[in-house]
Amino acid sequence: MKKIIYLILVMLVSNLYAENKQDEFNTNILEELNEQIRNCNIDNDYEKGIKIGENALVFAKKSHLENSQSIGDTYLELANIHYYNHQYELAKTYYNNSLKIYIFPSNKDNKQVGHIINGLGNVAEAQTNYDEAIRLYKKAINIFEKDKNMISVAITTSNIADIYVLQSEYKKAEPLYKRAIDITIKIEGQDSIETINRKIDLAELYLEDKKYNKAEPIFIKAKKILEAKIDKNNNELGILALVTQDLGVLKYHQKRYDEAIVFYKNSIEIREKMPSPNTSAISTTLNNLAMVYQNQSLYREAEEMHKKSIAFAEKSLEANDPDLAISYRNIGLLYDEMNLTEKAIVEYEKAFSIYETALGLDDPNTQMTLRELIDLYYEVDKIEKAQALELKLR
């Protein structure tokens, strides 16, 4: 009898050991898939990353890992990739799914919670729900401070400042950016990539506030440091492209158009060298380049750049993304300026349709585009169409 009991115990222990080994094996596979999603996000290969993420979720369910921290990471990586792909509702869903996993009783390590809440803040900001975004960012900062994760405190502090810039509250934004810079210098040093990012944030504030003399030296110094680093490491090409584009914007506002063109073209060249170029960012720079030509009445060059910008935007954005509407409206403005009213109407109709669907009738962008479209209809005696749209004016 004792032998039988002993054998049963041995079998139970063996089975338990085998199950634990299988769980460990499955967890390692899931973590490898999470790493692949993360790399796709870095490379801007969102479609591939989403497919890997969906396969990871199926694998986790079959492997009974639905409540593990690894699946929490899968949800988080999927949320990040949907956020950067402008799919905000999906991002919000996955961030919330990840949060549920990380506050699950068996998961004691909850250091990711701050990052998840910060991600939800990013989504709220992208959806222009600024009060909610600031509330979430402040909540994330409290968690990061408790964990002594000061780099994340600096990043999230900058996120709050970004919102104040969007609201033209520059005096509120400036001390937050400076605090983020001070924190980052203490941890990473003066010339680290994180410090450069925080300084670029401050310079972009000065650019927005038309304090060009303060912005320019920060941008130039950042560009020099990045160019020196990139001789050894090409991972920071995206930041170099951004600061180069910012210099183009600065020169454009100073009406130094020839210099602006050089910086914009340089920014595009840098992005095209990246393993997976950010087509949305290239679209933005091409649009900026078109505006430089347009301001000099170089309409043929402007039209070419606008068309290229739209081609990149259509590749990288959802059909109803407001950023795509901006591209359509901008080429519509060009055609209007060229007195090509019928062509302008076609582009304005596309822009208005997107704004109305994505942002609603009450949004200022929707109403502005609506008014411009009505004026164009009247110009070509499309009275009935103009009057029908006037019913939508607020």
TrEMBL record:
TPR repeats lie at residues 114-147, 325-358. Keywords: Repeat, Signal, TPR repeat. SUPFAM superfamilies: TPR-like. It comes from the Bacteria. SMART domains: TPR (SM00028). InterPro entries: TPR-like_helical_dom_sf (IPR011990), TPR_rpt (IPR019734). Residues 1-18 form the signal peptide. This is Putative kinesin light chain-like protein. It comes from Sulfurovum sp. enrichment culture clone C5.
